[in-house]
């Protein structure tokens, strides 16, 4: 077991390349997330931001470089093994279990903690307080929910995992402005509670409001990085992602 320096990032992605067959998707991507920090990965379609997140989650494996979680390598692990080490995921497209009820979907998030029954019940009530719509629909099949309600469910399921790190992929995709606001209201509360978050997002404006730091990817390369406030003021980011003239 590696000794963890107190200054070691909670998550370190170090100079990774990723290929899909003969096609290279990431080129020497590096980023880090400190404990209690929210870091956003921004970029357009095919920029490599979702591939970066999938690499952290063990859904794809780098052909070069390394990924460390609390100082220990995870880049060769399967996705279940990564999750077992305390990583929770809110995947793109929600991926709820459509035939199962809202309540059953939430319990799936808590499955690794299934022996902590009292704590799970407390956390379920916390989720229902955050998302009253889920409380109203707790017996309803998840597949009958709207897209925004399914995103709430995916977030609640990840929260019940009580992960040390939550990886969130495109939480605003396909949602109305009202639901985007509801989702980010919860993410701001998570941040205030000290939750460590790695966020992939196309909506750069709201992502930079939430994040402490951010990385901008283009064609599989990190082209910009820095504090969220600094990047929000960067002319390149403003022009490409914030709609500035």
UniProtKB/TrEMBL annotation:
Residues 11-244 form the ABC transporter domain. One of its GO terms (molecular function) is ATP binding. Keywords: Amino-acid transport, ATP-binding, Cell membrane, Membrane, Nucleotide-binding, Transport. This is Amino acid/amide ABC transporter ATP-binding protein 2 (HAAT family). One of its GO terms (biological process) is L-amino acid transport. Gene3D superfamilies: P-loop containing nucleotide triphosphate hydrolases. The keyword Cell membrane applies. Pfam families: ABC_tran. Belongs to the ABC transporter superfamily.
């Amino acid at each position: 077991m590696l000794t963890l320096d107190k200054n070691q990032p909670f998550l370190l992605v170090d100079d990774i390349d990723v290929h899909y067959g003969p096609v290279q998707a990431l080129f020497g991507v590096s980023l880090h997330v400190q404990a209690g920090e929210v870091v956003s990965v921004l970029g357009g379609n095919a920029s490599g931001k979702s591939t970066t997140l999938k690499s952290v989650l063990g859904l794809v494996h780098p052909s070069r470089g390394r990924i460390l979680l609390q100082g220990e390598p995870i880049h060769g692990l399967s996705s279940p093994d990564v999750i077992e080490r305390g990583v929770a995921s809110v995947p793109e497209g929600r991926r709820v279990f459509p035939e199962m009820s809202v309540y059953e979907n939430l319990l799936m998030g808590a499955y690794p903690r299934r022996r902590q029954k009292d704590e799970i019940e407390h956390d379920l009530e916390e989720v229902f307080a955050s998302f009253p719509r889920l409380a109203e629909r707790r017996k309803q099949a998840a597949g009958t929910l709207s897209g925004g309600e399914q995103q709430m469910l995916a977030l609640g399921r990840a929260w019940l995992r009580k992960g040390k790190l939550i990886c969130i992929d495109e939480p605003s995709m396909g949602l109305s402005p009202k639901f985007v606001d509801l989702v980010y209201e919860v993410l701001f509360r998570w941040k205030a509670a000290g939750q460590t978050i790695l966020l992939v997002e196309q909506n750069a404006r709201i992502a930079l409001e939430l994040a402490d730091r951010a990385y901008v990817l283009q064609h599989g390369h990190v082209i910009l990085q820095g504090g969220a406030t600094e990047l929000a003021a960067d002319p390149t980011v403003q022009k490409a992602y914030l709609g500035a003239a």
